[in-house]
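Before relying on records like the one below, remember that each one covers exactly one chain. Contacts with other chains, cofactors or solvent are not represented anywhere in the record.
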Amino acid sequence: MSAASRMRLRGLVRKECSQILRDPSSIAIAFVMPVFLLLIFGYGISLDAERVPIAVVAEQPDADTAGLEARFDASRYFAPVYMSDLGQAEEALRAMRVNAIVHLQSDFSRRMRGPGGAPIQVIVNGTDANTARLVIGYVQGVWQSWLEKRAVERGERLGAPLRIDQRVWFNSELRSRNYLVPGLIAIIMTLIGALLTALVMAREWERGTMEALMVTPVTMGEVLLGKVMPYFVLGLGGMGVSVAMGLWLFGVPLLGSPWLLLAVSSLFLLAALGMGLLISTAAKSQFVAGMAAIITTFLPAFLLSGFIFDIGSMPPVVQAITRILPARYFVASLQTLFLAGNVWSVVLPNAAALAVFAAVFLGASRRMLRKRLE
């Protein structure tokens, strides 16, 4: 790069910095939007099912039913409501005052002492299939723990063919927030990176300042660099705010290297800024550019990046589509760095994919950004 080119580039960067200070919308996108979205999504989205209201119906209350009811009381997953009539419980289920019914029949204690054991009827509201599956699993866990406690008190051995000794890696607390917040950061940075450059470039076209730049000696490559550099720094600032909120507000652990996190985030941010530049070359209106950025970057990233929905459970055609989304690789990298650490076999391939996306989008933007009015 020649001395004249460096001088022009410094002037363009200075111009962008002055414009950012005069127009605080870019600062709001980079710093206010992450805080706002993380607060909404971080506290509003949860895959955990705790304090689920259930109706426990014991037709013939006795010591056995009272012991089982005590286990439901002690569980953090349930908020039991005790009823004596199954019809009353079914009415509460229809009215959605409870999510499930645990029915203990009148001969529960007698059949408990028999060779076949006593059945427990569990009726679950299946409207929310995910919660229904969780409730069934939690009821089975309460039932098993009660049987074990009862066997110990009686000095008996619980007749089970095997014993499962569970150990959870990477998210031992099984907090869905630890899994969701890193994905949220990726989704938010997708939107921010695309909006920062898409709106700014479109604003240049609307105000006529892009035409003024075209009659100067600056090249379009210098214009591209002059746009990317300030907003890259601004985007990293927003990323820093998001990570800080994840660590200190939501309590998500960061087991990987902060420097590796910075490197991967930089690659993704370059790809997101490149997407925004590419959008702005086709849509020279701020409104159109903003809508295009949301539709082509935020929504696909939210639905198809693996942030909420498991990619392996999607149809093969949809899985193939997810491979052209940079957010897929960034979500996988963030979740690995936060919860598992520096797993190079995961991080390096994803970082390489992000580098390819950044080169493709920035290269395409450079080819489409020409010194001509159309």
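Strands lie at 52-58, 78-83, 100-104, 121-124.
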